[in-house]
Design a protein that fits this description.
Number of domains: 1
Structural class: mainly beta
Largest sheet: 6 strands, mixed
Shape: globular
Radius of gyration: 20 Å
CATH topology: Neuraminidase
Number of helices: 3
Strand content: 35-45%
Helix content: under 10%
CATH superfamily: TolB, C-terminal domain
């Protein structure tokens, strides 16, 4: 029996080694220079417009910054403040191809979305009822709902399962445009806060106008909708790397001792992005990233390196096809 156990352990070790060797390790082709990156207190977003200009969302400093395509000469675009045209207690931002961008913040505890030109001039803004409730948090940072959004240039897509659909799309006037996606069953329908948290996720548009929705907590899965909002498919996410995760998923969640109301739900998935070929990238809390083709089939596993191992907090594909990642403000080239 001992020899059998030793053999099994040996096979498991070999399997783990083969798995590690089979993973693609990406090294950055560019990174924001340390003397510039060091200015930011907590960069929670790193994106790029079609013109090549980079944008950095410094959450802790309540600021938006620009960096030119040569990655020098940083300049402040939006400053701290509760009044229109400034940001306070921000949670996320998103850039459109033309360089216009939106920022979600919360003056006086009320969720607000503002739109800006590439130079930082406010063009629109509206408030969202209930948008500041932190359904899923990681180290005190909201990573669901208004913590992740997409910007088309004319409308904003948010995860809002509390409204009865997975995704809500708003015009920049604040008028609802459409809702997409039925909530998935969770076996916690009797606890609305948990049910909503387990349906929270990341909405992502493909270059052809289709929509992915990646569930961030609970059983790992994602859905794909066509441009009209019709469900194309739902895929559970499977792999050896998450085999140990599934048995440890909690069946109950403690309440936040501060407010005694919200369940403390942590994500399994940190970030997601769609590349120019329509492939879906999903970064897990455990430090690896799966890549799926347009049919929802897993085709790669990726790990990122910078000065050391990098576990993506945000991911964004720039106009040249390079992947921009925080932390570290790294840029990766994908050659396949």
């Amino acid at each position: 029996m001992r020899s059998l156990a030793a053999a099994v352990a040996g096979l498991l070790s070999i399997s783990a080694l083969v798995l590690a060797i089979g993973a693609d390790t990406l090294m950055p082709v560019r990174s924001v220079p340390p003397e510039i990156a060091g200015r930011f207190r907590e960069p929670r977003g790193f994106q790029q417009s079609a013109s090549g200009q980079y944008y950095v969302f410094d959450r802790r400093a309540h600021e938006m910054w620009g960096i030119d395509p040569r990655m020098d000469g940083p300049f402040r675009i939006v400053e701290i403040g509760a009044e229109p045209g400034r940001i306070i207690d921000p949670t996320s931002f998103a850039v459109a191809p033309d360089g216009s961008f939106v920022v979600a913040d919360a003056p006086r505890g009320t969720a607000r979305i503002q739109a800006f030109t590439p130079a930082g001039f406010r063009t629109a803004g509206f408030f969202i009822s209930g948008g500041t409730r932190p359904r899923i948090t990681l180290d005190g940072v909201v990573v669901s709902g208004i913590g992740s959004m997409q910007f088309t240039g004319t409308s904003v897509l948010l995860s809002q399962p509390e409204n009865g659909s997975l995704v809500s799309e708003y015009l920049l006037t604040g008028q609802p445009k459409r809702s997409v996606g039925q909530l998935r069953p969770t076996a916690h329908e009797g606890d609305p806060e948990v049910h909503v948290a387990l349906n929270s996720g990341i909405p992502l548009l493909t270059p052809s106008g289709e929509l992915y929705y990646v569930f961030q907590a609970g059983v790992p899965a994602f859905r794909k909708y066509d441009a009209s909002g019709r469900l194309l498919f739902e895929r559970p996410i499977q792999g050896r790397e998450i085999d140990d995760l599934l048995p440890t998923l909690p069946s109950s969640w403690p309440r936040n001792p501060v407010d005694g109301e919200l369940p403390l739900v942590k994500p399994n998935i940190r970030a997601a992005a769609v590349d120019q070929k329509g492939r879906l990238w999903i970064a897990f809390e455990a430090g690896f990233t799966y890549v799926f083709d347009g049919d929802g089939d897993k085709i790669r596993m990726v790990r990122f390196r910078g000065a050391g191992a990098v576990s993506p907090g945000t991911m964004f594909f720039g106009p040249g096809g390079h992947l921009l990642v925080t932390p570290g403000l790294h840029e990766y080239e994908v050659n396949w």
